[in-house]
Design brief:
The protein is built from 12 helices and 9 strands. By secondary structure, the protein is an alpha/beta fold. Strand 1, helix 2 and strand 2 form a beta-alpha-beta unit. The relative contact order is 0.09.
Length: 335
């Protein structure tokens, strides 16, 4: 869909709503409305951060839609990072059994991952993405101009997901860093789109997108209960290290792959300020028990036989995961 076609679609909508968070609204809300010709849109501004990716926030969105007489021909534009696209996609897919929505990602992480693929949802009880739907946006608008306001930490968070694509699909993506990430954005998005198109409902090959996320989600969820929460990408960067460590023993991965990744992981976590200690390991393990890939008490992983050769449904013992976390802890102390 071209820019003009999208403007025409929004002009034909019974009403346009723009969902964003308080941080993004300060910089980009008026510009977006002007860009899309929807200055009369109803604005819904929520609090920023993963802590607010809850049913309570979605209820606020639904109430705003209802109060402003949104019908099934309304369109919701989600302007923001992954939290906003998750919230907005979920709210839109449920409201009146589904209204159209558009994702306008404003973070690198959202541009290459969260805004693509049709997974929408919220956290429940501190556990990531426990409630959700599959529903695709009618369009995803990617414009690097939004990245001009991002901190180095937010850029590194997005780069972590781009590195993931290097391990599972395209080795060239392992070269991405803060100096060249813009040239890899479209390639990263296409990789995810191609994988999703093969398995939209996440019953087979799409599982490879979970590389690094089993331990990563547990680390992220635990960090949100502390005074120093990690970004999603930082947690995934650590989770990938654990997955590579486990892959050596479980899948015969060459140890050099892990050794080569170590300085990159340390760079990806260099802005986090994470002080990972022995006392963090069991709380992380408790969150790991809720992972959707687990079966009969076993921990399900995506591991690697080699770069670009992911293996799904690899079940690993809790003791092995603890060992990987201990090994990770030693390397994080070197940052």
């Amino acid at each position: 869909m071209t820019h003009d076609e999208l403007k025409e679609m929004l002009a034909d909508a019974s009403k346009v709503f723009v969902l964003t968070d308080a941080n993004v609204a300060m910089y980009w809300l008026p510009e977006l409305e002007h860009w899309l010709g929807c200055e009369q849109a109803v604005e819904i501004v929520v609090k920023a951060g993963e802590r607010y990716k809850t049913l309570g926030t979605v209820r606020r969105i639904w109430k705003a839609l209802l109060k402003n007489n949104a019908d099934r021909h309304a369109v919701l534009v989600n302007l923001g990072g992954g939290t906003v696209s998750d919230l907005g996609g979920f709210a839109a897919s449920c409201y009146q059994r589904g209204i159209q929505f558009v994702n306008v990602p404003t973070t690198l992480l959202a541009m290459v991952d969260a805004s693509i693929g049709g997974k929408n949802g919220v956290d429940l009880g501190g556990v990531k993405n426990q409630i959700g739907t599959f529903a695709e946006p009618v369009e995803v608008l990617v414009n690097p101009i939004f990245l001009s306001t991002l901190s180095d930490r937010e850029l590194l968070s997005g780069i972590a997901e781009m590195v993931k694509y290097g391990f599972i699909a395209d080795e060239d993506m392992l070269q991405v860093d803060v100096s060249n990430y813009e040239q890899y954005i479209l390639r990263a998005g296409r990789i995810k789109k191609e994988i999703v198109e093969q398995d939209f409902r996440d019953r087979g090959n799409r599982h490879i997108l979970n590389f690094g996320h089993t331990v990563g989600h547990a680390i992220e969820a635990y960090s949100l209960t502390t005074d120093s929460p990690l970004t999603h990408g930082e947690a995934v960067a650590a989770g990938m290290w654990c997955a590579l460590w486990l892959s050596i023993g479980e899948c015969g991965l060459d140890e050099e792959v892990l050794e080569d990744y170590l300085p990159k992981m340390q760079k990806l976590l260099s802005e986090s300020g994470w002080n990972f200690t022995e006392t963090d390991i069991e709380p992380i393990m408790s969150y790991l028990k809720h992972d959707k890939k687990n079966v009969d008490g076993q921990y399900g992983f995506v591991l690697l036989k080699d770069i670009e050769k992911p293996v799904c449904d690899q079940f690993v013992s809790g003791d092995m995961i603890r060992e990987s976390l201990h090994a990770l802890m030693g390397h994080l102390n070197d940052i």
